[in-house]
Amino acid sequence: MNSYKAPLKDLSFIFNHLLDQEQLAQLPGLEDLGVDLYESILDEAGKFATNVLDPINASGDREGLKIADGVVTTPKGFKEAYAQYTQAGWNNISLELEFGGQGLPYILSTAVNEIMMSANKSFVMCSGLTIGAIEAISHAGSDELKQKYLPKLVSGEWGGTMNLTEPGAGSDVGALKTKAIDQGDGTYRIHGQKIFITFGEHDFTDNIIHLVLARLPDAPEGVRGISLFLVPKFMVNDDGSLGERNDLRCVSIEHKLGIHASPTCVMAYGDNEGAQGYLVGEKNKGLMAMFVMMNMARLTVGMEGVALTERSYQAALDYARERLQGVDAETGQSVAIIEHADVRRQLLQMKSNVEAMRALSLFIAQAQDISFRHADAEVCQHNQGLVDLLIPVFKAWATETALKTTTTGIQVHGGLGFIEETGVAQYLRDAVISVIYEGTTAIQAADLVGRKVVKDQGKNLGVLIGLMKQTLAQAEANADLADIAFELKYAIELLEQHSRAIAGQFMQSTKQALSVSVPYLMLTGLVTGAWQLAQSAVKASELLAAGDSNVNFLKGKIETARFYHKAVLPEIRGLAYTVSNTGSVITGFDNVYFGE
Amino acid sequence: MNSYKAPLKDLSFIFNHLLDQEQLAQLPGLEDLGVDLYESILDEAGKFATNVLDPINASGDREGLKIADGVVTTPKGFKEAYAQYTQAGWNNISLELEFGGQGLPYILSTAVNEIMMSANKSFVMCSGLTIGAIEAISHAGSDELKQKYLPKLVSGEWGGTMNLTEPGAGSDVGALKTKAIDQGDGTYRIHGQKIFITFGEHDFTDNIIHLVLARLPDAPEGVRGISLFLVPKFMVNDDGSLGERNDLRCVSIEHKLGIHASPTCVMAYGDNEGAQGYLVGEKNKGLMAMFVMMNMARLTVGMEGVALTERSYQAALDYARERLQGVDAETGQSVAIIEHADVRRQLLQMKSNVEAMRALSLFIAQAQDISFRHADAEVCQHNQGLVDLLIPVFKAWATETALKTTTTGIQVHGGLGFIEETGVAQYLRDAVISVIYEGTTAIQAADLVGRKVVKDQGKNLGVLIGLMKQTLAQAEANADLADIAFELKYAIELLEQHSRAIAGQFMQSTKQALSVSVPYLMLTGLVTGAWQLAQSAVKASELLAAGDSNVNFLKGKIETARFYHKAVLPEIRGLAYTVSNTGSVITGFDNVYFGE
């Protein structure tokens, strides 16, 4: 198997030429930073990923997890790698300075996340979930809870989890049944079972801080009756030392298609006297407290799509360059399969998609940085609007695309791709869950249509389309990019038309609109990717004209954008047609027609 | 996990209303048969699949295979099931009567194959490969070889294998290096290693008859220097009893993404004195002898796509009907997820694809039956032309589609889909290899464009399009199907246009044409599927008008066709665009642009 190399050249291009470093450098807290620092950190991240995480990725997948008496053992090398990871601070790049975070921008943590997840997705999930817990406590917790728990969560000394799902309540969180009973002394007793708890139990850290959604006895039904509780595995004494074991345990771990080294736990709270917990935020407002970090969690899951596509692409490219098969019709010489016409198409499909997704991820991260830090509330709102709009698009489009690209990665390897030792099958297996957790593709699509496009009457979408049209004007002004501009123009028009169409449908029949919301989301994702690659092509063309010496890389950027616009983007033609014409067929399909 | 049920209603519809039973009943050997008999056999096949094969499918996947000292042990229950399978004659439905086959038509064996593979793909591969070996021996072998080996291969008492691939020779069979040395006594000694040998070693049968491609010392290079040899695991005495063990062994078995119960073997021939073998057919014409069964083998692999889509659809449909999640906005009642707009879309995607693929598979099988049996050479040629044209389309389109549909099947299950015990992840894992073996999708596409469309100057394609236009005329004459006719008309036009376009490209630049040959193939597959479903809708509409009581089934047929035409078929718009516009971008992409 080949060794992972961080895509530093592409990241450098994006950081230098697509992101607005001037504006970023003016944001509070980022004044003394700059692209040189970011690049040196990305370089270090790449080394860590290549040297520490990548070598235990396939072995971790093969070895998997062990559980005995509620104790989970992670694969060989994982615990040690975690110690190195947190010691180097890879776990808290963008966390607030106050509790020990590094206060660096999301553009950096997002890029680092891609790198680390390319090398070892299972491994990174522990700190990913911990960050989610930190953000919830940070946002909604009392000062006491923050002081007591945040420093060790931020340092990585303790792990954190998010406990939402129950056997009867998956996407419908409001249906959960776990109970919390007020003890009158500032603590609560929690009773209930949670499933699909990522890193609910493990051996990376001495303590694990669980955030658990539960219902108080007098709570209203549904999502308005859910409270959030902090439930430590070991109670924490006032001096910070660990006290007695809390009444919670990992009942079992799941046997999964992928992410074999990431324990997915069934957790039992309160087998005996009840697990002790503390209320985080207000009663019955737990879902809000937990949804604070939803955008960043969804961005992270979207990054999994980028990361696994990149990893699979690297493996496929290396193999395509080494593997001899067949002879060239003209020369009669043996050729590497990269010369085969269809293998080139496959590699370009992977390359163009990953570069489009990566550029979009960092555009979103930048908007989030601006929104969180800018002094002008209007600027913040403008940028937050873009984040809110683009998060469901990116999450679903990037993860769905990764299913295709990682499958392509297998196919480039021929029969070898199907052999587990080759390593590329793992990327597909690891990628499948990303279209499901943190909200399925259908949930992202419903969020996009109902809450992001219809609710503000297309305002944020209008802002996005305005940005796309700026890029379009630049591409149109560049004769070498005429064909790209032509495709982008058509794509933007389709997006505008079908956004209006689905919003209109939504007003008439929510169900009909939702039945074509996934095709609409994928259309939006594809067009957004085209916009990012067109922007890349514009910049690359400018740099070439200015005599930049990185000729092959920059020409490759332009040709990759060209391929995407002609061989990836055109899928929107079918999607658009489906959005306009299918709603009533789907909703009108009688249940008995599915079979009796 | 739900229990598999054979899709007898859909098969009955196809057998009665889409196939030409009148013509079939006039073919030599089929005169006394008829749809009643076929249906009763399919009913029995369904029972066998449900009761014997389905119950050991997931357990076989979990348990996998064991190897010790070259002896392969299949999972619990497999050996016993194989004995039942062959005793019931499921292994030789369409084999010739002469050596013990049942001489039944391919339409029947194709449908039975779907049923059995839905229930347990790994299991069925043993007899699938054996049939390939039988057909090669039957076609090219001497009478002596036929008499000695065919009866026990046909009965299933012995297994058969196909040994093509070597470490350095995958799709490029001509590069193989295994040697054969003439002993001057009618036997040859074989030396070499073969990989990816399906059921190369197992415990189902007492003997295994390997068909091995190898080179004689004086053979020309490349594909014109390959001969085919019959190499038994145990030598066979003149009285039919087993003699000494031959000099061949299974070195290892692969650890694969899927089909865990189907041993994929590395085979070593001639570690010592050389494995004894017999020439099958003429010297240096081995590839031709082996390619005789290529069409039927590719049809079988295409059926794997149908089978796994059906299995995954059944699991998803059952789950969607049972799983309560969320409440209906209007009634406030809990609803099963089949009511969720996007789940309906997902189920319809699976249902419409599987019905399109199934109908096409049986159309091809029928053409093959006519071609093999009809008295009029012209009729045979006409039908064989359709088979030759449609086989690569069906093989690649059905297997590629299965990757999407089995992924959808996982997604319908939400997080549970990712848990192996749920069972639906296996369908995806089992499906992945089908796009690779028996010729990758790229190879099917090259075959389609180069040998099937260009070579005969579009003659057979013209025949196919003529048939599509007949269906179109029927749909156009039916007011209820106006929208389906509209879509089909556009689709046929696109297919005609882009067939001409890619043929033109092929003459100018083979590489450019091949670089878009997969999108062209997928376009062809989608249009062919639309044609079959339009035909189904026409028939269903006629039956409804005639007062057929199967109202829900028939209305479902029409609406399924409608969904396909509006939400599946439109993908051709993007594919067509790519076919026309991308060739030069792909072939012109400099290798260094992929990265340095």
From TrEMBL, chains A, B:
Its EC number is 1.3.99.41. InterPro entries: Acyl-CoA_dh-like_C_dom, Acyl-CoA_Oxase/DH_mid-dom, Acyl-CoA_Oxase/DH_mid-dom_sf, AcylCo_DH-like_C, AcylCo_DH/oxidase_C, AcylCoA_DH/ox_N, AcylCoA_DH/ox_N_sf, AcylCoA_DH/oxidase_NM_dom_sf. Residues 39-157 form the Acyl-CoA dehydrogenase/oxidase N-terminal domain. The keyword Flavoprotein applies. Residues 284-447 form the Acyl-CoA dehydrogenase/oxidase C-terminal domain. It catalyses: 3-(methylsulfanyl)propanoyl-CoA + oxidized [electron-transfer flavoprotein] + H(+) = 3-(methylsulfanyl)acryloyl-CoA + reduced [electron-transfer flavoprotein]. It is an enzyme of class 1 (oxidoreductase). Keywords: FAD, Flavoprotein, Oxidoreductase. GO terms for molecular function: flavin adenine dinucleotide binding; oxidoreductase activity, acting on the CH-CH group of donors. Residues 162-267 form the Acyl-CoA oxidase/dehydrogenase middle domain. Residues 465-585 form the Acetyl-CoA dehydrogenase-like C-terminal domain. Its cofactor is FAD. Belongs to the acyl-CoA dehydrogenase family. Involved in the assimilation of dimethylsulphoniopropionate (DMSP), an important compound in the fixation of carbon in marine phytoplankton, by mediating the conversion of 3-(methylthio)propanoyl-CoA (MMPA-CoA) to 3-(methylthio)acryloyl-CoA (MTA-CoA). This is 3-methylmercaptopropionyl-CoA dehydrogenase. The lineage of its organism: Bacteria, Pseudomonadati, Pseudomonadota, Gammaproteobacteria, Moraxellales.
